[in-house]
Amino acid sequence: MTDVANDAKEVDPKAQADKIKKMLNGLTKFGEIINSHEGQKIAVLCARYQYRGVVAHVGEDFIVLANARSVEISGPSAKATPEREDDIGGFVIIKHDAIEIAYQPTWSQAPLSFEEDAVSTSNEDSTDGPVA
């Protein structure tokens, strides 16, 4: 078993705070921060469920994730794909108040659909483009 406390690197709190402030670039509201990720894949942790998808729209009090999936078991954040998830079959609308964490673990970037997976695989195997 790995001792996480001993494996963790010491982080300078001031340097980390400065990095976060620079990343937020003056954004102060949750919706503004999420909106800055529009078109990107993210993971959203709510009280009971975890979702991943593409930020399609940010409203005053909600976000819309396209190509959404319900993540049942994520596994380690650095893992390439979640351990178990279900395709929701479209989009999901999530109230800002329901969101505990919005983040981008490595597994949140995994393909969201069979077609996306086929395109990324075929692009790696060939320079001629996706196979039809």
- For the record, the CATH class is Mainly Beta
SSE string: HHHEEEEEEH
Strand content: 25-35%
What is the total tally of β strands? 6
Report how far the terminal alpha carbons are from each other.
46 Å
Q: What is the fold named in CATH at topology level?
A: SH3 type barrels
**Number of structural domains:** 1
Mean pLDDT: 81
Number of helices: 4
Topology (elements, then pairings):
Blueprint: H1 4-7, H2 13-24, H3 30-35, E1 41-46, E2 50-58, E3 62-73, E4 84-87, E5 92-95, E6 99-103, H4 114-125
Antiparallel strand pairs: 1-2, 1-6, 2-3, 3-4, 3-5
Overview of the structural elements:
The chain has 132 residues and is of the alpha+beta class. It has a single domain, classed as Roll (SH3 type barrels), CATH 2.30.30.100. The chain is 26% helix and 30% strand. It is built from four helices and six strands. Strands 1, 2, 3, 4, 5 and 6 form a six-stranded antiparallel β-sheet that branches. A hairpin with a 3-residue loop joins strand 2 (50-58) and strand 3 (62-73). Residues 118-132 have low confidence and may be disordered.
